[in-house]
Amino acid sequence: MIGGLLASAIANMDGIRGYSSWRWVFILEGLTTILIGVISYLFMSDFPEDTRWLNEEEKRFIVARAGVDKEHAQPINGRHVLHFFTDFKNVLGAVIYFGAVIIPTYSFSYFAPTIVKTLGYSTVETQLHTVPPFAAAFVLCLIVAYLSDLTGLRSPFIAFSTALTIIGLAILMTVHHHFSVQYAALHLVAMGSLTSGPLVICWYVMNLRGHTERNIGSAWMIGFGNCGGLVATFTFLAKDAPLYHTGYSICMGMTCLGALAAVVYAGLVVMENKRVKAGRGAKEGFDYCSL
User: Fold this and answer.
1) Which of 13, 144, 151, 233 is surrounded by the fewest CB atoms within 10 Å?
2) Greater pLDDT, 241 or 136
3) HEC secondary structure over the chain
4) Looking at 53-67, 106-120, 127-141, 274-288, which range is the least confident one?
């Protein structure tokens, strides 16, 4: 959301100190990223017990609420990693993230200005017109996060946000030379894909038990999932303008793949919960999986 506003402002910095505007993008955003990284390293803690800015009562409250276990001193080895992948449910989390979140999100983030420019705007106007879709996604993300926490459910909201992405992509693939409809479809893609991200991560990580499993699972999801960024980089090529049929088709296919993986994952969660309820095949200390 802020990126479009920032880019439109930086576009007016062309020639300052002898630098082109695109150089200022790297300078300003790069310095900001480095600064936040240093601050995060200094103030973020691995575990609630290690924080310096919480008192003992606050630490106990966070540990109790989050259900943080005490096994974090145990080193992770290859045996743990191999065992983690014996559960197909653990594998699917990264596939959902790869298909339904990363590829459509990165594709939209990388190429929103390129797509909007085909609608006939100047460079500055193009950057400004990328702001409303991200703003709409931000509002929807907050609403869905609140409702998801209120109901204790993730999968229905993932289905809803994924449906928005698919509808938006379908419109963009089939409707041409109709600005209002195409621009509305961009909003749907942004709202759907960006809202799916935190939901999918939360759903997957909540269903991992113990420090070891969560560490491996988080690394697997983020590591494999973000490989989708490599695919997204080559989706909207200049030679495909202005229809970008290939780019939209890739996003549609990957989003549908992620949706299918989410359905299978939900089915495995239901089966796991039935085993827990029946007292068979449950992991030690394992509670019900979240839907």
Assistant:
1) 151
2) 136
3) CHHHHHHHHHHHHCCHHHCCHHHHHHHHHHHHHHHHHHHHHHHCCCCHHHCCCCCHHHHHHHHHHHCCCCHHHCCCCHHHHHHHCCCHHHHHHHHHHHHHHHHHHHHHHHHHHHHHHCCCCCHHHHHHHCHHHHHHHHHHHHHHHHHHHHHCCCHHHHHHHHHHHHHHHHHHHHCCCCHHHHHHHHHHHHHHHHHHHHHHHHHHHHCCCHHHHHHHHHHHHHHHHCCHHHHHHCCCCHHHCCCCHHHHHHHHHHHHHHHHHHHHHHHHHHHHHHHHHHCCCCCCCCCCCCC
4) 274-288
Burial of 130 (0-12, 13-18, 19+ CB in 10 A): buried
Report the C-alpha gap between 159 and 100 in whole angstroms.
Answer: 10
CA distances from 263 to 192, 205, 230, 268, 270 (A): 17, 17, 25, 9, 11
Q: Once rounded to an integer, what is the mean pLDDT over residues 137-147? A: 95
**Token pair recorded at residue 271:** 């089966």
Alpha-carbon torsion, ordered 106, 174, 162, 131, to 10 deg: 50
Quick: pLDDT tens for 235-261.
888 888 888 899 999 999 999 999 999
Structure token digits, residue 225: 């999932």
pLDDT the model gives residue 66? 62
Contact of 174 with 112, CB cutoff 8 Å:
no
**Residue type present at position 270:** V
C-alpha span between 163 and 255 (Å, rounded): 9
**What is the number of alpha carbons within 13 Å of residue 240 lying toward its C-beta?**
16
Count CA within 13 A, CB hemisphere, residue 127: 14
